[in-house]
Amino acid sequence: MAPDPFRFTAAVPLRWVDVDVAGVVNHAVYWSLIEQARFDYFAQLKLVEGDIPPFLLGEATIRYERPARRGDALAVAVRTARLGGKSFEMQYEVRREAAGEVRLGASGASERLAVAKALLVWVDAKLASCEIPAAARRAIAAFEGIGERG
After folding, report:
1. Nearest C-alpha neighbor of 74 from the set 121, 24, 120
2. pLDDT tens across 90-131, in order?
3. What is the predicted pLDDT for the residue at 3?
4. Which residues of 31-49 are buried (b: 16+ CB within 10 A; e: fewer)?
């Protein structure tokens, strides 16, 4: 079995409101789970000041593979796949975790429910796109084991 390319996984609890009358997690909820995991990822890398991430979402896609249901222990695996000048690409897997396996920082035994990717744009205080700061670029590249550009 190939090693998991995701070096960060965050537990993302479901709320009662996230599930429809059939007991299935609503499709839009997946993005909320992904956004929470993305925030946790950048908080772990110490790249978030307060509650405001230094980037905006530019583009996002998701492919749903299996439904999540009430009572599932869910986690989102997060990785930065590519760093550009002002933007970067992230990839995600929403996973149903085996009981007792959800933990922050690494993935355990799981079943993939959805895959997603997003293009994010680094912004300044006025929300204008700007170069990804060198310190942030180094921290992300070092954590992911990727090049600082490309």
Report:
1. 24
2. 999 999 987 654 444 444 568 999 999 999 999 999 999 999
3. 76
4. bebbbebbebbbeebebbe
Whole-number Å distance between alpha carbons of 101 and 103 = 6
Span 20-54, pLDDT tens digits: 888 899 999 999 999 999 999 999 999 998 888 89
**Residue of 103 and 72 predicted with greater confidence:** 72
Pairing of strands 110-122, 55-64: antiparallel
Give the closest residue to 105 by CA, choosing from 81, 83, 75: 75
Q: Which of 77, 62, 67 is nearest to 23 (CA)?
A: 67
Q: What DSSP line would sit under 48-116, residue for residue?
A: -BTTB-SEEEEEEEEEE-S--BTT--EEEEEEEEEE-SSEEEEEEEEEEEPTT---TTS--SEEEEEEE
Instruction: Give, for 10, the enclosing helix (H) or strand (E).
Output: strand 8-11
List domains and CATH numbers for the chain.
8-144 (3.10.129.10)
